[in-house]
Structure formats: C-alpha cells, structure tokens
Amino acid sequence: MGFHDAGWWRLLYMSDGSKPEKLTWPLLKRVFSYARPYRKQIVWMLVTILISSGLGLVSPLILRELIDNALPNEDVGLLTALAALLMVVPLVNATVLVIQRWLNSAIGEGLIFDLRAALFNHLQRMSLRFFTNTKTGELMSRLNNDVVGAQRAVNTTLVSIVTNTTMVVATLIVMLALEWRLTLLGLMVVPLFIIPARRMTPVLRKITKEQMSENAKMNALMNETLNISGAMLVKLFGRADDEDQRFRKRAAGVRDAGVKQAVSGSMFFAFLGLIGAAGTAIVYYIGGRLVLDGSFSIGTIVAFAALLSQLYGPLQALVNAPVDFVTSMISFERVFEVLDMPLEVAEKPDAVALQDVKGAVTFEKVSFDYDDAGTVGFLSEVERHGMESVKKVLSDDDTGKPNGKPQANGNGATENGNDPSAESVEKSQARTWALDGVSFEIQPGQLVALVGPSGAGKTTITYLLPRLYDPTEGQILIDGHDLRDVTLKSLSEQIGMVTQETYLFHDTLRMNLLYAKPDATQDEIEAACRAANIHDFIAALPEGYETVAGERGYRLSGGEKQRIAIARVLLKNPRILVLDEATSHLDSQSEALIQAALEKVMQGRTSVVIAHRLSTILKADLILVMNRGQVVERGSHAELLAKGGLYTELYHTQFNREYAPEVEANAVSTD
Questions:
Q1: What is the rounded distance in angstroms from the CA atom of residue 396 to the CA atom of residue 220?
Q2: How far is the C-alpha of 498 from the C-alpha of 565, rounded, in Å?
Q3: By CB count within 10 A, which of 37, 186, 205, 492 is most buried?
Q4: 450 and 320, same structural domain?
Q5: For residue 628, which of 463, 439, 372, 454 has the smallest C-alpha distance?
Q6: What residues contact residue 53 under an 8 Å CB cut-off, 6+ apart?
Q7: Bridge partner residues of 577 (DSSP)
C-alpha cells in the first residue's frame, strides 16, 4: 500500500519489516469521548495556543520597526516604546504559557484519573479465570504505562501538533505579508527536512525499541529477584554473585542502548539544524544582495531571519508528529481492550439480594471446565511501540519454542480424556473437565467434608460456591436461589472463605482484620481474635494490633497467618463457611490452636471443608468422596468404611496413619 492510498496516518513503514501504525475513525471517536468532560478547558487551551503563537510573531516585527525606523530616524520615544515591548511581550507570553500548561495538565491528569478508575473498576469485576491467565505485570502495564501513554497522546503529542501547526501557518502568513520572494527562498529547504526525517526515523525507532527491550529485561530480572520469594531463593542457593553479574549484563545493555540512542538523536537533530542554518543563510545572502540593490530594508531581512527560526523549529516537530500521535494512540487501544472484555461472572440487572440466609446449598449436575472461557477473552501481550514482551527472565534470549507438553487446566488436569469410572488413588487425575455432573445437597448448619486424591475437584467446588467462577453446566443454589440470580455483594456477605494460602496485605494487623468489616470496633476485633486463638500473641507484640504484617504477611509464621485469617472470617460473620483445612505443614501447637479456633468458627454455620484431618472427617455430617471430578461416594465415616471403596483406601493410606488405633476405635464406636 502506497502513501497516498494509505492515508496520512500511515506515514512510515518500519525498516525492520514490522507493520506501520494505523489510525481509525472509531478509535479517534472513542478517544474524543473521554475528552468531552474537559471541552471547556480544551477550548481555553486552544485560545492560549493562538495567543502564544501570535505573541511569538510580534518580536521579529518589533525588531524590523526598530532597525528600519527608530534607529535611522533617531526617534528616542519610538525606541523606548519598542524596547519596552521587547520586555512586555515575553512576560505576557510566559504568563499565557503558564495558564496553557495548567489547562493542559488538568486535562491530562483528569484523563489519567478517568481511564485508571474505569480500568480498575472493570478489572475488579473480572472472574478468577481472567487473573489466572493474565500476568500481574501486564495488568500493571495497562494501568501505568498505557494510561500514561494515552495521556501523552492528548496533552503532549496532540497539543504539540496543534501548537506547531498554528505557528507554521501564522508565521507563513506574516512572512508572505512582509515579502513573498524571501518566503519562497526560505521554503526551498523544507523538503530537506522531510526526506532525511523519513529515512532516519525508522533507525531512531529501532534504536529506541532496542533500548526499551533491554530495559524491560532488566526490570523483569529485578522484579523476579528483589521480591521476598525471589530474594529467599537467591540466598538459599547462594546465587547472589551470579545474579549480580546477570544484572550488570542487563544494565550494561540498557546503558549501551541509551548511549546509541543519544548519539544517533544528536546527529539527526544536528543535521536538521544545519538544514535550518542553510535556509537562513540563503535568505541572508539573497536578501542582503537585494538590500544592497535597495529593494529591501535591513529590518526586513532581520525580521525574516527571526521568523525563519520560528518556522523551521515547528516544521521539524511536525515531521514526526503524525507518527508519534498514532504511536501514542496505541495506548488507548490497549486500555480499550481491557474495558471491552466481557464480564464472565456478571450480575444480572434484576439480581436480588440474599436475605435471612439459612445456609442450604445445592449442586445440581454441575460441570466445569477451566479452559472453557466461552466469550471471555484474555489479554494479549503488550506490543506497544518500542517495547517487546519479555518471554524469559533468567535466559539471555527471548526466543522460546513450545515444549510440546499438554496444556493443563486450572485444576492441574490435562486434556488426556475423562475416565470417571476409575476409583484408584494411584490413577492419574488428568482430565478435561474439573467437575463432571456433580450433585449434592447440604442442609443448613451441616458440616460437609470433601475428601479425595489431589486434583479430584475439591478446590473447584470451593471456588464455585462463592461464585469465583460460574459452572460450565448445571446450577448452584443457596436457599433455592440460583447464584446467577443474586447480587454479588450479598453473596459475598453470606460466604466466608479461608484458603490454604493465607494472604495478608503489607499493612497493620488491624487493617488486615478490618478488611472483613471496616466499621468493626476494637472490642469486636479482639473478640474475633480471641475466638481464633491469636489475641494473646498480638497483644504481646510491641506494637500490638498496629504491627505491620510485612509483604504477604511474611513477618508472621504460617500458623499465625492462618489464625489471623480465621479471625478475619469471624469478624465477617458469614452464614456459610468454606475452608481448605491445610494444617499438615504446621507444628502441633499451632495446629491444635487452629483446630480449636475452627471448631468455634463452624458452630451454627453451614461449613464446606476440604478435610485433611481425621478429626474433622469424623465430625462431619456428610462426607463427599471426590475422584476425577465426580462424587463417587457419600455418607458418614462408618458407612463409607463399610463400603470398602475409595474412601477406605484413602483412610488407610492418608487419614489414619497419623493417629493411634485407639483414637480410631473410640471414634468409630461413637457412630
């Protein structure tokens, strides 16, 4: 496609073979819709641009009047007035530029606020599937890099285009009014600006791309090795010196690319400066000859030279302005990509709020596939101008090939078929469907234990109940209400979840607890912590509840974090409790404290527990045995043992080996 039929927005094909940026009217229309709330500020900013451009043309005309009239005629009054104007004009212009800058920043920062708020609001409503398939760094890039790029498109690139265009047009009008022949002489060098710019811009872009790619690699390495988990891994394997060398190599790449960019840019703009100097020299020479012939005045030549500097500068900026504008508009496309992603777990317009919840839970033929996103898309990796995605962090190259392994679903399963009839613990849990036709009922206040081999689908059930995902098939009901028909807020209020991996914010223990109930009193906080067997520990800390938990709560032990998580759920006071009872990694004292806390939490609540302890299983009103995404057995402990099926095998291989025989005998005798 050639230049003419491609349109003005396809001004440049990359020398490295990549596609040119393009601009579409729907994109522009949508961008302008975000500028609509700031239309008054935009109008006033355009006024300031016109005033500033006009004031920029006054000084050359003052110089002409001074040289041609004030000095030859020895007019002291006129000389004084012109000298005063040479002081007043820059002062007024500076004031106008300050106002323009204020308006410009108000528009740009307001635009950033609107885009970030819209992005964050939309991301908060995306399903868990979206976050498990998207890099956190990519989301941060959309919220930071792309939003700032969008701001730059509006309040830097666009303003620059308008300002420079206005200046060029106004300058040409004044120059033509003064002397059209000198104007044509000055315009003779204009093609010399465009030709080298179109040849050099791809080179400069390629160098910039290289620099930003090297910078991305360095940032990725810092992100991987300077977080707490990465730092711990480096220390445990004694790789500090190696990481130091790797970082020095990445930083050296950034340094060398930066030097190359600076030198190339300086050479390019020095060349453009020489072209401008050549144009000025031509005007001085030809105009000077005409002055000697008496055709022109000296003041006219001086004014023209000053006007030429104000013509060539904006022309240089306008050469790359369209490409810069189109490039920066890519950031808007990246932002809109997120905003246009449909919500997988969406709230119906007529959704009802759950009230007076008793806690009855029903799964009706529920099937779920982690890989089936329906119409929900995933974010593409950013390919913004001058920046490549970093595929690898520790490797020195970014060229990776598929490893040929089957793709796993969110439950650790791969697409190797589905064989629900298998009941052996040793049988692989790999399959396409995480859940396959699961049905069961839980009565209000019941304790239901989910047991089964790893990957059987237990965690998936706990994810579907608070509607972190929607089932692919079937329905889930609470007190007879389909979860899709109730408001998300009311559902969240009724369900409390303690996950296997406890997450704490890098804030005080008080703020982490208040996350469950922001208006909780100190007495309520302490009551919840006492019930969770963590109050005495917190009270003994030097700063008590104001102690900072640290990054992801790393300043606390696993048992302490779990008890804080339990206290947080208690403070929320939900009607339904979902719990992953993972306590095998804790010491016996912490485990005993947590078990005692959990007993208090589960009292009077409907509880769904992924059970790892025999004591919890024995107390369960109903045991659901999961295997390969199906409920293969259900009943009480004694009933399931009598069947001699998968539960019996699990009992002998997992649950019973940590307990003395007399515990088993006493527990069974009570059934």
A1: 12
A2: 7
A3: 186
A4: no
A5: 454
A6: 163, 166, 167, 170
A7: 496, 607
Residues 159 and 35 in one domain: yes
Q: What is the rounded average pLDDT of the residues 584-599? A: 67
Whole-angstrom Cα distance, residue 40 to residue 21? 31
Asked whether 49 and 169 are in contact (CB, 8 A), the reply is no
- Position 229 in a domain: yes
Cα(183)–Cα(117) distance, rounded to whole angstroms?
50
**318: which 2 tokens?**
């306008």
pLDDT in tens, 142-175: 777 777 777 777 777 778 888 888 888 888 888 8
- With CA atoms as reference, report the closest residue to 49 among 152, 128, 161: 161
Q: Contact, 291 vs 67, CB < 8 A?
A: no
User: CA 122 to CA 116: how far, in whole Å?
Assistant: 10
Residue 8 dihedral angles phi and psi, to the nearest 5°: -65, -20
- 580 has which bridge partners? 610
- Residues ≥6 apart with Cβ < 8 Å to 108: 151, 152, 154, 155, 156
pLDDT > 70 fraction of the chain, expressed in percent and rounded: 80
Sheet with 435-442: strands ordered across: 435-442, 361-368, 473-478, 481-482
Distance CA 469, CA 434 (A): 12
CA distance 303 to 318: 23
The more confident residue out of 551 and 97 is: 97
Instruction: Compute the average pLDDT of residues 331-346.
Output: 82
What is the sign of the dihedral through the CA atoms of 396, 398, 399 and 402? positive
Q: Are residues 326 and 472 in the same domain?
A: no
Specify if 413 maps to a domain: no
Alpha helices in 36-75 (DSSP H): 39-56, 58-65
Alpha helix positions (H), 367-455: none
Q: Which positions ≥6 away from 661 have C-beta within 8 Å? A: none
Q: Tell me, yes or no, whether 335 and 453 share the same domain.
A: no
On whether residue 519 sits in a domain, the answer given is yes
Flag whether pLDDT at 128 surpasses 60: yes
Q: Quickly state the pLDDT bin for 415 (edges 50, 70, 90).
A: very low
In the predicted model, is pLDDT for residue 412 greater than 60? no
Same structural domain, 473 and 335: no
69 CB contacts (<8 Å, ≥6 apart)?
75, 78, 299
Q: DSSP alpha helices (H): ranges in 515-574? A: 522-531, 535-540, 558-572
Mean pLDDT computed over 334-343: 83
Q: Which residues form the domain of 555?
A: 445-669
Q: Token pair for residue 209?
A: 């791309």
Domain boundary among 339, 361, 392: 339
Which of 312, 339, 366 is the C-terminal boundary of a domain?
Answer: 339
Total-model pTM: 0.72
Q: For tokens 């093609």, what's the residue?
A: 191
Phi, psi (deg, nearest 5) at residue 366: -85, 125
CB hemisphere CA count around 277 (13 angstroms):
6
- Domain CATH code at residue 531: 3.40.50.300
CA distance 149 to 154: 9
What are the tokens at 332?
């808007």
Rounded distance, CA 309 to CA 325, Å? 24
Q: Would you say residue 362 lies in a domain? A: no
Return the structure tokens found at 320.
């790359």
All residues at 6 or more sequence positions from 543 whose CB lies less than 8 Å from its CB, including other chains: none
Q: Residue 67 is part of a domain; what is its CATH number?
A: 1.20.1560.10
Residues with Cβ < 8 Å from 195, sequence gap 6 or more?
none
What is the total count of domains within the chain? Answer: 2
In terms of Cβ atoms closer than 10 Å to its own Cβ (0-12, 13-18, 19+), residue 648 is middle
